């Protein structure tokens, strides 16, 4: 693993026919977080879409990097998509961290992206990773050498929200008697320690690039991650952006409003040109 592009990235395939759709997860997530949406999109016979659930660098089963970079993440995703289906174009769906990666991918590798779906994140800096500092502290403080069972880990992990606890502990893996984090917790912790200089919380300046393809911007109505002030900035980079708000949905739109998410993605696939 280097400062540049780690690879190849780990992936999971869902579906056997139809348009190619790549899913990029959020911070501390994994590609399989999109499994249910991908199955619904592919349909019972698998012909609705060929979905690729990607583990981003430093997450899931993918390699770790030494320094965080949105451009590096986007390059790793681009190399993975190109290797998986040479010469083909993709609908790229990205949530949160993965949403920023998907935007950078579209801006830096536009020929790969037939259509873009950005889920509850804006192309801006969010100041710091203060929202995640408690999670990071709890993960770093879990005494891996003392753990005996997953139930033991769950009892020691102090997080009152059971959904968040399960989401974070999906990163905990056991090999024999040894426990480890699949996510690169130390890299994320170093980035969080930068405070307002966090690279993960930021969005890179990309020399006035734009992506001219169709973009659906799916926001959670109860989230707060996307505001009215973000619309002009988004449309400067992505002129063909259409904002869709899932009323009552949290930041994790695909889990709190799966029906809206699947219906939105089906409309995106239906609008693709025949040669996409």
Helix and strand arrangement:
Layout: E1 11-14, E2 20-24, H1 35-42, E3 50-54, H2 70-84, E4 90-95, H3 97-108, E5 113-119, H4 133-141, H5 150-156, H6 162-169, E6 172-175, E7 178-181, H7 185-192, E8 215-220, H8 230-237, E9 241-246, H9 253-256, H10 258-270
Parallel strand pairs: 2-3, 2-4, 4-5, 5-8, 8-9
Antiparallel strand pairs: 1-3, 6-7
Protein name: Alpha/beta fold hydrolase
Domain AB hydrolase-1: 19-254
GO molecular function, one term: hydrolase activity
Write a compact overview of the structure shown.
With 276 residues, the protein is of the alpha/beta class. It contains ten helices and nine strands.
Count of helical regions: 10
Task: Tally the beta strands.
Answer: 9
Order of helices and strands: EEHEHEHEHHHEEHEHEHH
State the end-to-end distance. Answer: 33 Å
| Superfamily (CATH H level) name of the largest domain | Alpha/Beta hydrolase fold, catalytic domain
Low-confidence stretches: none
Q: Helicity, in percent?
A: 25-40%
Q: From the coordinates shown, what is the CATH architecture of the largest domain?
A: 3-Layer(aba) Sandwich
């Amino acid at each position: 693993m280097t400062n540049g592009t780690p690879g190849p990235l780990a992936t999971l395939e869902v579906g056997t026919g139809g348009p190619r759709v790549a899913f990029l997860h959020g911070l501390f997530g994994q590609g399989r977080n999109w499994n249910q949406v991908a199955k619904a999109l592919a349909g019972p016979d698998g012909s609705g879409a060929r979905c690729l659930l990607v583990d981003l660098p430093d997450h899931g089963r993918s390699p770790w990097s030494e320094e965080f970079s949105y451009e590096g993440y986007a390059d790793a995703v681009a190399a993975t998509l190109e290797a998986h289906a040479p010469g083909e174009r993709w609908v790229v769906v990205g949530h949160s961290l993965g949403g920023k990666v998907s935007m950078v991918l579209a801006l830096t590798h536009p020929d790969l992206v037939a259509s873009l779906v950005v889920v509850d994140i804006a192309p801006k800096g969010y100041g710091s990773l203060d929202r995640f500092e408690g999670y990071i502290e709890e993960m770093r403080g879990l005494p891996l050498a003392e753990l005996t069972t997953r139930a033991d880990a769950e009892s020691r992990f102090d997080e009152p929200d059971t959904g968040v606890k399960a989401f974070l502990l999906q990163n905990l893996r056991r090999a024999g008697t040894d426990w480890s984090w699949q996510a690169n917790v130390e890299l994320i912790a170093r980035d969080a320690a930068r405070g307002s200089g966090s690279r993960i919380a930021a969005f890179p300046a990309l020399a006035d690039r734009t992506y001219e393809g169709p973009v659906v911007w799916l926001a959670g109505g109860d989230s707060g991650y996307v505001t009215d002030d973000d619309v002009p900035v988004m449309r400067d980079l992505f002129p063909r952006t259409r904002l869709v708000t899932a009323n009552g949905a949290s930041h994790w739109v695909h889990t709190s409003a799966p029906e809206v998410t699947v219906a939105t993605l089906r409309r995106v696939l239906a609008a693709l040109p025949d040669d996409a």
